[in-house]
Amino acid sequence: MTQQCYQATIAAFDRANAEDPNKEIFNGKEYPKELLYAQRMTEMQERYAPAASEAVQLAVRAQHIRRWKIPRSDYAMDKPGYMLWRTTLYKYHAQTAGKLMREAGYADEMATRVETIVSKKGLKTNPETQMMEDIVGLVFIEHYMLAFAGQHPDYDAAKWIVIIRKTWNKMSPRAHEFALAGKIKLPEALLPLILKAVQS
């Protein structure tokens, strides 16, 4: 690992995410939303894959970089609009991460490698992309699934099972084992639905 480039890049990612106007309270402290998300991603990576490559470590930290710049409300509120928003985000996050990496001194080869991971290219075939997706799923389950449920009180059990399975199916068998082995905090209120979704 090129320590100087790595540290400069992580600092650049964090400065970018610290500009997020959206805030989240965690343990009584207010954080810029995407900065907190990035920190949670790194924390999960260190738990789930402490020997992850430098590229994965960087991609994990940049996965939502400056996400607020492309709001969902700019796109049609239907499935095609949602999919276009998601693919636009992937490209934007990847390009932003690559630009900041190059500015910090990384060569194109490493920057391109991180861009590939962040843009989610090669999911299920690229081990580094899959590792990041595993971490995305684990972070969502531990930190965001319960809040998401609170935003959608109209969803019934069947709808929730579909949502949980979509997240679960993107994750690798290793991530499944990690989650079910008590290595992450499962949202207690949703635990019966989670177990039903993943075991049936």
* Backbone shape: globular
The ordered H/E elements are HEEHHHHHHHH
Percentage of residues assigned to helices: 55-70%
SS content category: mainly alpha
Described by its quaternary structure, the protein is single chain
Description:
This protein is mainly alpha-helical. Helices cover 68% and strands 4% of the residues. A two-stranded antiparallel ribbon has the order 1-2. Strand 1 and strand 2 form a beta hairpin. The protein starts with a helix and ends with a helix.
What's the helix and strand layout?
Elements (H helix, E strand, L loop, with lengths): L2 H16 L4 E4 L2 E4 H16 L5 H9 L16 H25 L4 H11 L8 H25 L5 H14 L2 H11 L7 H9 L1
Helix pairs in contact: 1-2, 1-3, 1-4, 2-3, 2-6, 3-5, 3-6, 4-5, 6-7, 7-9
Question: Which key features would you list for this structure?
Answer:
200 residues; mainly alpha; 2 domains; 9 helices
Quick take:
This protein is mainly alpha-helical.
